[in-house]
Amino acid sequence: MNIPANKKKVSIVCFSGDFDKIIAAFTIATGAAATNREVTMFFTFWGLNALKKNKGRAATGNSIMAKAFNFLMGGLNNLPLSRLNFFGISPKLMGGMMKKHNVASLPELVEAAHALGIRIVACEMAMHILEVSKSDMIEEVQDVAGVATFLNESEDAHIIFI
Amino acid sequence: MNIPANKKKVSIVCFSGDFDKIIAAFTIATGAAATNREVTMFFTFWGLNALKKNKGRAATGNSIMAKAFNFLMGGLNNLPLSRLNFFGISPKLMGGMMKKHNVASLPELVEAAHALGIRIVACEMAMHILEVSKSDMIEEVQDVAGVATFLNESEDAHIIFI
Amino acid sequence: MNIPANKKKVSIVCFSGDFDKIIAAFTIATGAAATNREVTMFFTFWGLNALKKNKGRAATGNSIMAKAFNFLMGGLNNLPLSRLNFFGISPKLMGGMMKKHNVASLPELVEAAHALGIRIVACEMAMHILEVSKSDMIEEVQDVAGVATFLNESEDAHIIFI
């Protein structure tokens, strides 16, 4: 089944920047890649926060507004839990519970995704609105693309919106 | 590729009524329609708020309960941000940031969707529960349908739940 | 169209444990099954709460952390609304509005799903992290599986992430 032309495809739109949903996105992505699918992850809106080089809070952007949003949203280490967040304490507790049970952490999942050849794409429009440039993002980001390009490349793929 | 029978289909379930998610739904929908897909948007639950004629808060419905829910949920101009909402200030700031970067606004996206021939369908059950009638909704709503009808029409489509 | 080999498939990832989203998941699932699709529901993360035997709050798990999370998350009768939750009052009001309009309640939907032959699968990793064992869950749960197994079984299915 290794012939690229027949390879099953999975495309994941990572819209949410919640810690738990990003974990879910990378778990599905790496699971799919490990079972020989061609996987693309398209990060948009809040999801962009998972790709920022500054993993903590940083006032990225030019305008005051973009700076404020970027600061408030934070980065990979500040992602909130979609429920029971308790001002950011819960993602840390959840991380601890995952570690205790030998489940891969978020940075490990990002690394695994890259190693498995998952294509990581950042949404052009979201970068534009939030004034995040390619140099503000981790080097695992392979491409910047618009939604039309993403949809065209996902023509034969399962599209999963997270 | 313009032969209708072979036209790729995309069906979007607009469940969420969050400002950012509705923007995402319309962006994907118009992007798909612009690249020659047949697109259906099925609005249910909170998503219905984006279709109400009263774009502000209005006590639509007959029972006190339905009126209260409809009032609290608001309409197209009151959609909250899924995160960092700050009592409704953020969607306005985000709208400003979008305008500044020449990104289409939500009303513009609704108009574009209509112009591109995207089929806008309202969920019968959600209308029933929330006591929203067809006359309470914008005229761009072409159809009212149940989930089974929607699924049947989406048999060969990508289904995206937002 | 009743030949199993050609039967259309729908796979739903129930990630969210919100009352309204679980209702949506079961509504789509039963609608799909009723129109002759083969449906699998894969419950992970917060979604697991809908499958717990203890439908109220209970400190399931061994470690203090797992107990705390399970208690705070609650069960089928404590699922919050994704918006306007008001400390759990709204899901009850919404349930009342559904009953008034003869819409199936959540326990009825779970029962219908089972009767329609929908396969209910619990996510192994989420059970592991939250220390929920198979005996903690309702008997309608037919299987425990990892994400790779789920993806393999969903190869020809619509995948819907809720």
Summarize the topology.
The structure is a homotrimer of 162-residue chains.
Chain A: E1 9-14, H1 19-34, E2 38-43, H2 64-73, H3 89-100, H4 106-115, E3 119-123, H5 124-130, E4 143-145, H6 147-153, E5 157-161
Parallel strand pairs in A: 1-2, 1-5, 2-3, 3-4
Helix pairs in contact in A: 1-4
Protein name (chains A, B, C): DsrE/DsrF-like family protein
Pfam families (chains A, B, C): DrsE_2
Provide structural commentary.
3 copies of one chain form a homotrimer. Helix content of chain A is 38%, strand content 15%. With 162 residues, chain A is an alpha/beta fold. Chain A has one domain (9-161): DsrEFH-like (Hypothetical Protein Ychn, Chain: A), CATH 3.40.1260. A 5-stranded parallel sheet of chain A has the order 4-3-2-1-5, with helices on both faces. In chain A, helix 1 links the parallel strand 1 (9-14) and strand 2 (38-43). In chain A, helix 1 (19-34) packs parallel to helix 4. The model of chain A has no long low-confidence stretch (mean pLDDT 89). At the A-B interface, helix 2, helix 5, helix 6 and strand 5 of A face helix 1, helix 3 and strand 5 of B.
Q: Which features would summarize this protein structure in a list?
A:
homotrimer, 162 residues, alpha/beta, Hypothetical Protein Ychn, Chain: A, five-stranded parallel beta sheet, 6 helices, 5 strands, globular, DsrE2-like (chains A, B, C)
Entry summary:
Three copies of one chain form a homotrimer. Chain A is α/β, with parallel strands linked by helices. Helix content of chain A is 38%, strand content 15%.
